[in-house]
């Protein structure tokens, strides 16, 4: 089997700051890669470079063996902010790019939008505008919008960071369902339990370098690199402190 996504010696520099340093990663079809690491380690930058949103200074990003180009639809990205059009219904938000970018006839685009909304559990709410949806539902519309474009790889950058804790579960459940159905994805998240249960592999970044890329059992089960262990220890202490507070 060939990798869907190949990241080869990817570098990103801004001025003399090295944000990503020769990152290489092959992602096989159906893999769910959890990307973790300290704040500022380069997680968002990695996803943005893969999606073609940030310019790269060196290396390659290949999707199914071809250089990915921004806007070719091979890679889809879901952000922390949902970025929905407030004046459009959920269905129209999902259908817009299909009509405008893909030139799909309105009837087909609407049917595809309905199917994508159903996949994220919002089949009944397509006629609502964002203001009439919860934050979790709005993020699910954003996921449906990306799914409708049928990308080969789906990137999630902190998809629940803007949500109240009680609304994160529904979004994480949708991502879990997509992963279980074989969608190839990379997920940046600070929710370690979620990353541990979702990922086929976990990539730990620090200072723009991949410190460890291994199955979650290895990374979270005490087999981690020293830097990873320190990070997880601090994370667990913070979670325990938050629970006690
Ligand atoms: N356009 C830019 N110009 C200069 N520095 C940048 C730029 N974009 C990102 N950086 C720096 O690159 C580093 C990595 O940033 P990035 O947002 O990718 O980290 P992150 O791991 O996603 O952090 P967080 O977990 O806090 O979201 C940070 O030190 C950041 O300040």
Automatic annotation (TrEMBL):
The ABC transporter domain extends over: 5-232
The record's section on InterPro entries has: AAA+_ATPase, ABC_ATPase_HisP-typ, ABC_transporter-like_ATP-bd, ABC_transporter-like_CS, MetN_ABC_transporter-like, P-loop_NTPase
Localization, per the record, is: Cell membrane
Q: Which keywords are on file for this protein?
A: Amino-acid transport, ATP-binding, Cell membrane, Membrane, Nucleotide-binding, Transport
Spell out the GO cellular component terms annotated for this protein, sorted alphabetically and separated by semicolons: plasma membrane
Q: Which GO terms describe its molecular function?
A: ABC-type amino acid transporter activity; ATP binding; ATP hydrolysis activity
Q: Which family, according to the similarity comment? A: Belongs to the ABC transporter superfamily.
According to UniProt, the name of this protein is Polar amino acid transport system ATP-binding protein
Q: Which organism is it from?
A: Falsiroseomonas stagni DSM 19981
Q: What is the lineage of its organism?
A: Bacteria, Pseudomonadati, Pseudomonadota, Alphaproteobacteria, Acetobacterales
């Amino acid at each position: 089997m060939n990798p869907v996504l190949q990241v080869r010696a990817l570098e990103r520099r801004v001025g003399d700051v090295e944000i990503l340093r020769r990152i290489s990663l092959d992602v096989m079809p159906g893999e769910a890669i959890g990307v973790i690491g300290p704040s500022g380690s380069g997680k968002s930058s990695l996803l943005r470079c893969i999606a073609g949103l940030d310019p790269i200074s060196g290396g390659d990003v290949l999707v199914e063996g071809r250089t990915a180009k921004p806007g070719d639809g091979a890679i889809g990205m879901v952000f922390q902010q949902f970025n929905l059009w407030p004046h459009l219904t959920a269905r129209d938000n999902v259908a817009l790019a299909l009509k405008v970018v893909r030139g799909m006839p309105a009837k087909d685009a609407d049917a595809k939008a309905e199917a994508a909304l159903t996949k994220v559990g919002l089949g009944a709410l397509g006629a609502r505008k964002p203001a009439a949806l919860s934050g979790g539902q709005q993020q699910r519309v954003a996921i449906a919008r990306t799914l409708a474009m049928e990308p080969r790889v789906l990137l999630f950058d902190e998809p629940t960071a803007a949500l109240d804790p009680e609304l994160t579960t529904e979004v994480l459940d949708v991502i879990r369902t997509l992963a279980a159905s074989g969608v190839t994805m990379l997920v940046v998240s600070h929710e370690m339990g979620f990353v541990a249960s979702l990922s086929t592999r976990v990539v730990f970044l620090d200072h723009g370098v991949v410190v460890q890329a291994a199955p979650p059992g290895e990374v979270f089960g005490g087999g981690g690199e020293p830097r990873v262990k320190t990070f997880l220890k601090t994370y667990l202490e913070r979670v325990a402190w938050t629970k006690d507070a």
